[in-house]
Every structure is written in C-alpha cells, then in structure tokens.
Amino acid sequence: MTSRAYVTLVTNDAYLPGAIALVRSIRHTGTRADIVVMHTGAVASETLAPLTALGATLFQADLLPTSTAFNNAHAKREIHGKNPFTKGEKPSFHTPLDNFVKLRLWQLTRYEKIVFIDADALVLRNLDRLFDYPEFSAAPNVYESLVDFRRMNSGVFAARPSEATFNAMLTALDTPGAFWKRTDQTFLQHFFPEWNGLTVYDNMLQYVWFNMPDLWDWSMIRVLHFQYEKPWQEDHPKAEKLQPLIDLWRAFYTGKGIPADISALPGPRGAAT
Known about the structure:
three-stranded mixed sheet; Spore Coat Polysaccharide Biosynthesis Protein SpsA, Chain A; alpha/beta; 10 strands
C-alpha cells in the first residue's frame, strides 16, 4: 500500500463497465499509486470481482446518515423535477442521492493524498502530478461555452483524507432546508469556495467534442469524462455524435485495441489534433 491512491465510486451494478474501463486506463498510465473502488451495499460482491482482478482495492462505503427531509429533497423525482437536465440526459440507473457517498473518501485516512475520478471517465495520461496539488483542486465544468468556467466539475479532484474534514462536511451538508442543485458538485463548490483550478484537460468533458471542437487536443487531454450519457448505454441518444469517443472507451473496457499514441487520434473535424 502506498500513501497515495486514485479513488472512484460504484453505487450500483450498472456502473461496473465504467469502473472496469477506468481502472484499466489508470493502470495503463504506469502509476504506482493504489487504486481504490468505493462501493455501496447495493453492488453485488460478484460484480466487483473484475475490479479486484485488475488490482483495485475495495472499500465499502454506506450511504451518508442524512435526514429523511434531506433524502426526500434529493430523491431523483425531486431533484430532476426542480432542476431538469436540458443539455443532455442522465441514464436511468443514475441516482442523485448516491452521489453524496463520494464524501466518504475523506474517511480513507490510510492515505495521505487522493485523486478522485468518476467511474464514467478514462485516464489517458499519467495523472500523478495531481497528488501534489492542494486540497481542493478541480477543473471547471466546461462543455458548452466560456461561461462554464465559473463552475467546477467534481468528476476529478485532489483531496486530503481527514475525519475532521468529513465530519465538518456532514454538518454543513444536512442543514434545515438544504438543497444541493447538482448534489455533490454543488456542495463541494460551496464547501471549498476557494477551490484551486485544474486545467480543462485534466477533466475534459465529452460534449466539448461537438460543442467546442477548437478546444479539443488529444495531445493534452489527461482525463476524458463521459458526463451525461454513458458510453456503455444501449439507448445512447448521442452515440452517433460521440462514436469516436465511445470506441476509445470500449478499447479500454475490453483491453483490446488501446491506441499506442492517443495524440495521433483524429480530432472532432477528422484530422489529427
């Protein structure tokens, strides 16, 4: 065990394909850091076997002890009803309340430094430098326009485990009338208002591919994040637009055909970037 770990979260069996591809992609970068998969009790033990086979360490993380009022306010029907997604579609297996389990990574005090990565992402280049970034470091939520730089995305971030921090989070999270519009993402930006900015290439959101193609540069992208629709969805409404990215994800998922040189891949307009 090292003092550093990449951590992800699997909250139900449907996220297993994403976790498999992510863990394999992290290993592919040659890092010596541990890889930890947090999982809830909703995930069957046999589901997790492929992750341990890839060398991941498992950590069961229960739902947070939040109040009934908090849970009701952040139920899918409530949170999506009040703040529907208008730019893309979340898959049916996405459960907003589960997102808050991510905060349990601050309880992984066996590690000094953690880089968290959502299970719907791929690491395309070694990301170890982020272990030396301050808490809390995250990239902006850029996928449509420059206005997106005002918000951070919680799909990739650097953190420092601490029970004191975790307890302070619980106190700040579940207050009377609390409503976090985009769950953990909104809360973490509130809790760390002076968050340190990573580059967009440390958390490149897939919609940049067709919304902001001039920003896409394979030679610089370190993490590719499949926000909204997931590349393993059978009913993927944007599969045609995102097919090259889905093909890359599938290569990491299967372990077959992983490109030797990511930089040489064609860009959004066909030519290599």
